[in-house]
Amino acid sequence: MNPALERPRNVFLTGVGGHGVLAVSRVIAEAALACGFDVRRSEVHGMSQRGGSVVSQVRYGTRVHSPLIARGTADILVSLELLEALRHLHALRSDGILLANEQRITPAPIGDLTVAYPDDPRGICEERVSRTIFLPALDIARELGEEKAANMVMLGAYSVLAPEIPEAIWLETIATAFRPRFRELNVAAFGRGREVAFRSAGAEAAP
Amino acid sequence: MVKRLLTGNEAIAEGARVGGALFASAYPGTPSTEILETIARQGDVQVQWAPNEKVALEVACGVSLGGGRALCAMKHVGVNVAADPFFSASYSGVGGGLILVSADDPAMHSSQNEQDNRHLARAAKVALLEPSDSQEAMEFVALGFDLSERFDTPVMLRVTTRTCHSMSPVEVDPNARYEPVLRPGYEKNFRKNVLLPANARMRHEAVEERIAQLEEFGNSERALNRIEWGDRTIGVITSGIAYQYVREVLPEASVLKLGLTHPLPRQLIREFGAGVDELYVVEELDPFLEEQVRALGLHPVGKEIFPITGELDPDRVAEGFGIEALDTGIEPVGGSLPLRPPVLCAGCGHRGVFYTLSRMGVAVTGDIGCYTLGALPPLESMDACLCMGASVGMAQGMEIALRAAGDTRPVVGVIGDSTFVHSGITGLINTVYNGGSGTLLLLDNGTTAMTGHQEHPGTGVTAEGEATIALDYVAVCHAIGVRRVREADPYDLEALESAIREELAADEPSVIVCRAVCRLVDRTPIADPAELEIECPGCGTCFELGCPALDGSSGQAMIDPAVCSGCALCVQLCPFCGLRIHGHEAVTPEPVA
After folding, report:
1. Is the pLDDT score of B443 beyond 70?
2. Which CATH class is domain B531-580?
3. CATH top-level class for B2-220?
4. What is the pLDDT of residues B351-361, one digit of tens each?
5. ipTM, 2 decimals?
6. pLDDT > 70? residue B584
7. Which candidate in B32, B35, B167 is best for mutational testing of the A interface (most A CBs within 10 A)?
8. CB contact, 8 Å: B338 with chain A?
9. Does domain B349-515 have CATH number 3.30.70.1490?
10. What pLDDT is attached to residue A113?
11. DSSP H helical segments within B376-522, as ranges?
């Protein structure tokens, strides 16, 4: 029997191709399934490896139908990049939480070069979203010796906002989701993300 | 049984396995590609990448004729290519069960149109199944094989991007052993399988009878078509992914959920229509169900409140029903954000080709693949992109019209390796046969890149990872009768341009093969990253390449050494000789052309 989470948890994830957004959403979905929740996860493939914006959505709860989150109903927006956070802020409900990696990735110099990367993306986010958590996920991953683990740092931070999924399930899911040689690194990155988010001011109980 | 989280595509693959398919074939195309990839990974069902969808279906038809169950997967536009065998296989019927998976792409996430292939199933008079999540995707494959054999019909399993690429839980039996379902004892059946007119006339009668029997079946088969009675003031007829949105938005409403959508269960629809006050039809794209429901004398509300274009989602369904959001959410950040469209990768072999073409004043007919990105700024060197293989025929046709109008601009066709094999070769035969004189650039990156790097007949590796004979493009072109076939290095801009100019000047058809392995397949650096030796004066010439390793946000060129592959195109362009690359001594002082 599914555990009770009458209103499904809506998690909107975004980043840039190559960031590992889809890996994060996959682990969230698998962990939720392992807890006995009904789960829907959506992503759009195609050109994501070629530096484009990437979006994935995960919904879990007692019973879920649509794989897509209705506009303005995401509980949490997880963004691995600041510009992509701005692009999708309106996915959040008015009291939703933004969890963002502080990294900035300048788009390739094509198209309209007069439209610049915003000077203060963080400020714009803070102005509009009541609860924001910013993490230096890339720096943390670098300290661990692998930039690519930034996504697992973000997953660790997300886990703090999702008490309905116990820590043991997260660790088990991470252990089975990736190749064994990355296990130690992924678990370490997850742990660091969890720590930092716990310490962060916004990390009390989930919505 | 255990619950596993599967995408619709993975679930279809699982369905093929548990449904006892002997064989599966496909040509890659978003959103269908992972179906065959997953079946290949499972290692049970025999798999083949075909050169195109027509061949894929023909091989599947042969397997079916011989008594094996066969599944054939393709994207929606691929069904156009396979339409010839598909429509006639409807008349022959099947031996072993035969399923064609049509993966439609509403919203055109990665397609050139958003045709609704339910029309094709109806036109071909075959059974049409529409699953609404991964569990059904798996079940409908196994059920589809049974239906196919029981009613002697090919089955179209129609899915959409959202069902293909969404994950939901599927109950699977981890101990289920793979066992192909076979109909042994093949016997020749002239009247059924040789579609001479006299035989085909009789087969058409059989097809009409079969459709009537299928309709009767659909009226009572609850695994496919079911009424979920709820609040009877609103009744919604729906199918596929739209069902999930309806359930989400109107949890209390009565719903007629259709899984078998051709032929429609008219009796069940009448019963449902009579049981509700107001009748709605919610479906993606065309009013396929709605028009047939209307033909029954019912008066549903449909496309006047739900969009006919693009994908549905919970918002669009709620808007149609006039349901307002409880929470207005957060205002979107205005339109002042820089876009992040997909780009050709750093070091991509296509970049030099399109940069060169953009400066030559030629018309370019393009084709389907990563290289379609060459149509976008800043390269903007493609005049048309229509369908797989069209670059070749269109180049010849355009030349006919331009010359008639006294326009001497050369026309160049550009096609990728996999696309050339798919349907470029026949176009080239036409060019030679009918005395065309254009130049075709064959961009060979050694893989089917855009769909995620599948093997094809030119790569020398099968879908099962076995070594096989690789198609020799140069030999093929020669055999067709193209006398001028040459290779050119797409990383050497000067040599490439002079090769194109020479071939355009020749008064006969020519092919230039530009070979550069896809950067996502072989990430070995071509050379050391480019470096700036002087302070960049910011002329912007190198930005015309649209390379993601170059950052121009400060006005000066900055090279990201982690992204740069050392392809040295920017080095060849820099008019100030400010860019250097290790191992590249000769730097052209002037930009090409």
Report:
1. yes
2. alpha beta
3. alpha beta
4. 999 999 999 99
5. 0.94
6. no
7. B167
8. yes
9. no
10. 66
11. 390-404, 417-419, 425-433, 473-480, 493-505
